[in-house]
Amino acid sequence: MSEQPVIPPQAPTLAGSGPPPMPQARSAPRAGPAPSLASTPPAGSASTARYPWYLRFSWILALVVGTLAYVATFVIMLLTRNPTILPTVLLVGAATIPLTVLLFAQSSRVGPLVPTRTVLVTVALGGLFGICAAGLEETIAGLLLGKASILLVGVIEETAKLVVPLIVLGLAHRSTRGGGVVIGIAAGTGFAVLETMGYGFNALLSRSGGLGALDSTLILRGILVPAGHVAWTGAICAALLTLTILAHRAFVRRALPPAGKVAAGTRSTGAEYTIPSPR
């Protein structure tokens, strides 16, 4: 008689109140990890597609847009007879081809070889320092040697172009590992752009010059610059960076035997010692 009133009220209360909240509490945590698991593949795919194909082939866009911009600005300057467009014509005509070569050397499937900030700093400082130092040295050589100083122009210019990229490689060699050619091309690009603008301006102001001489000078410089300032400086910087890496590896390999002896001695005492790999 006493067991019947006690058991029935407890059974319905546990059966009626327990099941509704339990699936809600368990369904909430199950719904939480599902979107997180679904969101991890896009994150991985976004990291792999961080440098898409249209950025990898941006050098083609730079070549096409730069060529069309040069033709458009030159024609507008002829039609309007407005001399204020002349600096734009000089800049676009001088920068199109070197910038195309720089973007081509910088791009790869995995992304840019050198950080963009490093490249921009090298272009600006390399061009400014190189053109100023080369102009000053050529003037001094002309005063001392006269016409014979023309034989030293190549040595003076190439030496002046190497100062900034060597400093950049020395300070940021870890972030530019394998990108020494890009640093050299960046310095050559800055130098070539400023020098081409100077040659174009001189052709415009010369006695037998004019807009025709300006146009022919910019086109000729655009053809010669990739195989001149840009390629030469890039090859030298790549060679110097390779020699630096090889010298560092040789030094590490020579230092490995003493380090191994130290490691053996420390292991006997129970201490931990790690030997850096030569790579």
Keywords:
single chain, 279 residues, mainly alpha, 11 helices, flat, disordered C terminus
How would you characterize the overall build of this protein?
There is one protein chain. The chain has helices spanning 3-17, 21-31, 33-48, 53-56, 58-80, 86-106, 116-145, 153-171, 180-205, 211-224, 229-269. The longest helix has 41 residues, at 229-269. It has 279 residues and is mainly alpha-helical. The model is unreliable at 11-18, 31-49 and 260-279 (pLDDT under 50). It is built from eleven helices and no strands.
Task: Summarize the SSE layout with pairings.
Elements: H1 3-17, H2 21-31, H3 33-48, H4 53-56, H5 58-80, H6 86-106, H7 116-145, H8 153-171, H9 180-205, H10 211-224, H11 229-269
Low-pLDDT stretches? 11-18, 31-49, 260-279
Number of helices: 11
Radius of gyration: 33 Å
Silhouette: flat
Mean pLDDT: 76
Main sheet record: none
Spatial gap, N to C terminus: 87 Å
SS content category: mainly alpha
Short description:
With 279 residues, the protein is mostly helical. 79% of the residues lie in helices and 0% in strands.
